[in-house]
Amino acid sequence: MEVGFLPMSERRLTVLSGPSGVGKSTVVAELRRAHPEVWLSVSVTTRRPRPGEVNGIHYFFVDGEEFDRLVEAGELLEWAEFAGNRYGTPREPVLKKLAEGVPTLLEIDLEGARQVRGTMPDALLVFLAPPSWEELEKRLRGRGTEPEDVIARRLDAGRIEMAAESEFDLTLVNTSVQEVCRRLIALMTDPQGVTTTTKREV
Ligand SMILES: Nc1ncnc2c1ncn2[C@@H]1O[C@H](COP(=O)(O)OP(=O)(O)OP(=O)(O)O)[C@@H](O)[C@H]1O
Ligand SMILES: Nc1nc2c(ncn2[C@@H]2O[C@H](COP(=O)(O)O)[C@@H](O)[C@H]2O)c(=O)[nH]1
């Protein structure tokens, strides 16, 4: 299935979603290493930092009170609760980068992607899918960052996210990080990138 043409100016905002453990952060890290011209929004979260995560780089780590304040002040473009924590995208930096014409990427969950679809209908929504459900479980467990009860919650959310794949403009299957990055950067920067893309790429 072909995805309709969107002018460059209207599709500089790209959203990358997909089940927990599929490899979104890995893909984004590689994309930013190879293409520093892409700007990644740094989200706010109430989740505790994992070892090695740095405040202001991986997330802005805040408590529930501060998150409430940001929501009430309208400072978040979108926000959602995911597996027991809250996550949101600071609005101002995204609007500023888009106004400057910078290719802008959000790595967010399904609920957040749905909100962006509602408020910024020209954004390109990309679903990152695992090669198989078994491989997704293997990656999530293999990462070793969550206890089993949290993994179970994330897999439950993952089943819901997998069922929503058709809501996205296209799907990239994360078999090869390099290949996904190659397609993603083409979609973000090449005006022909969307027209030549099939709905699901394997
Ligand atoms: N193409 C791939 N092949 C094999 N392993 C991969 C691939 N991409 C990512 N991984 C591994 O899968 C694990 C999960 O990746 P990552 O943390 O990037 O997932 P995520 O989608 O960002 O998860 P979350 O939504 O929970 O933050 C990591 O250990 C990563 O090294
Ligand atoms: N709706 C939003 N979802 C977000 C945001 N930042 C990250 N996320 C998503 O949360 C889950 C879990 O992330 P983790 O770092 O705890 O593994 C994952 O799906 C992220 O994409 C956000 O600003 N808004």
Structural write-up:
There is one protein chain. The radius of gyration is 16 Å and the shape is globular. The strands form 2 sheets. A 6-stranded parallel β-sheet has the order 2-7-1-8-9-10, with helices on both faces. The chain has a 4-stranded mixed β-sheet with strand order 4-3-6-5. It is built from 7 helices and 10 strands. The chain folds into 2 domains: 10-38 and 103-201, 3-Layer(aba) Sandwich (Rossmann fold), CATH 3.40.50.300; 42-101, Guanylate Kinase phosphate binding domain, CATH 3.30.63.10. Helix 1 packs across helix 7 (177-189). The protein is of the alpha/beta class and 202 residues long. Bound molecules: adenosine-5'-triphosphate (ATP) and the ligand Nc1nc2c(ncn2[C@@H]2O[C@H](COP(=O)(O)O)[C@@H](O)[C@H]2O)c(=O)[nH]1. Residues 18, 20-26, 139, 142-143, 174-177 line the site of adenosine-5'-triphosphate (ATP).
What is the CA-based Rg, rounded? 16 Å
The largest pleated sheet is described as: 6 strands, parallel
Q: What is the overall silhouette? A: globular
Number-wise, the strands total: 10
The secondary-structure class comes to alpha/beta
Secondary-structure element pattern, one letter each: EHEEEHEEHEHEHHEHE
**Average pLDDT metric:** 91
Strand content: 15-25%
Strand and helix map with partners:
Layout: E1 13-17, H1 24-34, E2 39-40, E3 44-45, E4 60-61, H2 64-72, E5 76-82, E6 85-90, H3 91-99, E7 104-107, H4 110-119, E8 124-129, H5 133-143, H6 148-163, E9 170-173, H7 177-189, E10 200-201
Parallel strand pairs: 1-7, 1-8, 2-7, 3-4, 8-9, 9-10
Antiparallel strand pairs: 3-6, 5-6
Helix pairs in contact: 1-7
The structure holds adenosine-5'-triphosphate and the ligand Nc1nc2c(ncn2[C@@H]2O[C@H](COP(=O)(O)O)[C@@H](O)[C@H]2O)c(=O)[nH]1.
The ligand Nc1nc2c(ncn2[C@@H]2O[C@H](COP(=O)(O)O)[C@@H](O)[C@H]2O)c(=O)[nH]1 binds next to strand 5, strand 6 and helix 4.
